[in-house]
Write a structure and sequence with these properties.
By secondary structure, the chain is an alpha+beta fold. The chain has two domains: 189 residues, Fructose-1,6-Bisphosphatase, subunit A, domain 1 (Fructose-1,6-Bisphosphatase, Chain A, domain 1, 2-Layer Sandwich); 125 residues, 3-Layer(aba) Sandwich (D-Maltodextrin-Binding Protein, domain 2), CATH 3.40.190.80. It is built from eight helices and 17 strands. The strands form four sheets. An eight-stranded mixed beta sheet has the order 4-3-5-6-7-8-9-10, sandwiched between helices. Helix 1 packs antiparallel against helix 2 and helix 5 crosses helix 8. Bound molecules: 2,5-anhydro-1,6-di-O-phosphono-D-glucitol (AHG) and manganese (II) ion (2 copies). One manganese (II) ion binds next to strand 5.
Length: 332
């Protein structure tokens, strides 16, 4: 029999490294893993069950909600609520943070920011989607959690992770000591360690950007895209374009193979499209922990001081040398 390590075993083994509220933190991660399995079950049935299509509502971003957006949001919040380790959740699907303080969680020490279902335009067409989350320590010491508990810099994250519901389902997370990936074995219903200590190559050959927006991009980005398309034997160009349109899946591929992901600001999205608190920050923490880099073109994503829960940012992230090159073009 091949020896394998489940997510639950791994979390317990690593809990000794964690300096603060170890037991609670382990339970919090485990609860997220359980909700991920429930969401995975529904994602896998999309097409069979009455789970695809629009929920007929708009979320706070003015974007149409899909049924799975709503389902995933409910499942993650329910898991965090019953776990009792988290006092407040900020979700893409809700305008305001949701206080989940209860008798069980009155001493809860953690704050979670989450995009419960990322890439929702890909659900109905059987293309990979994901979940992405960020965990912070609560800063206030009593009463209801405040917005200051949520609006912390990405650099203060204690953990971040994503789940990619793809040709197989994987959970990848970091607590600031490297990045580990777990693949869901559906026959036993467990995430098993399959990608220990993931490192992103410093240079890759993949660039991922929605080139349909080319005309609206800043000059520096246009020049970088042209650079990717040029022929050059020494640097292996032209690079390969790969873009799924689900942030989590695009980042996951580039993390394993090397490459760069770009979602620039543009004339129609002046601050970019992706959300800082529950898309850019967790992805940036993971990519940095794997040895890569994440920038908004000028500064490190993790150093941005947030002012609003749903604020957007440009995002350039992946292999360090590639992000450096983009910054050079943007600063020219
Ligand atoms: P969400 O489904 O959570 O709203 O996120 C969609 C995001 C992200 O996953 C992806 O990288 C990006 O939107 C794709 O945007 P374009 O369709 O503009 O390329
Ligand atoms: Mn998203
Ligand atoms: Mn989403």
């Amino acid at each position: 029999m091949t020896a394998f390590k489940t997510l639950g075993q791994f979390i317990i083994e690593k809990q000794a490294d964690f300096p603060y509220a170890k037991g609670e933190f382990s339970r919090l991660l485990r609860d997220i893993g359980i909700a991920a399995k429930i969401v995975n079950r529904e994602v896998n049935k999309a097409g069979l069950a009455d789970i695809i299509g629009s929920a007929g509502k708009m979320n706070i971003q003015g974007e149409g909600q899909q049924k799975l957006d709503v389902y995933a949001d409910e499942q993650f919040i329910a898991a965090l609520r019953s776990g009792g380790e988290c006092c407040v959740v900020a979700s893409e699907e809700h305008e305001n943070p949701i206080s989940i303080q209860s008798e069980v969680s009155k001493n809860a020490k953690y704050v979670v920011c989450i995009d419960p279902l990322d890439g929702s335009s890909n659900i109905d067409v059987n293309v990979s989607v994901g979940t992405v989350f960020s965990i912070y320590r609560r800063t206030s010491t009593s009463g209801e959690a405040t917005s200051a508990d949520i609006l912390q810099k990405g650099a203060l994250q204690v953990a971040a992770g994503y789940i990619v519901y793809g040709s197989s389902t994987m959970l990848v997370y970091t607590t600031g000591r490297g990045v580990n990936g777990f693949t869901l074995d559906p026959s036993i219903g467990e995430f098993c360690l399959s990608h220990p200590d993931i490192k992103i190559p410093t240079q890759g050959r993949i660039y991922s950007v929605n080139e349909g927006n080319y005309r609206k991009f800043p000059e520096g980005v246009k020049k970088y895209i042209k650079y990717c398309e040029e022929e050059d034997n020494e640097t292996g160009r032209p690079y390969t374009a790969r873009y799924i349109g689900s942030l989590v899946a695009d980042i996951h591929r580039n993390l394993l193979l090397g490459g760069v992901f770009l979602y620039p600001n543009s004339s129609s999205h002046t601050n970019g499209k992706l959300r800082l608190m529950y898309e850019a920050n967790p992805v940036a923490f993971i990519v940095e922990q794997a040895g890569g880099k994440a920038s908004d073109g000028v500064q490190r994503i993790l150093d941005i001081t947030p002012t609003e829960l749903h604020q957007r940012t440009a995002l350039y992230c992946g292999s360090t040398d590639m992000v450096d090159k983009i910054e050079e073009y943007l600063q020219e």
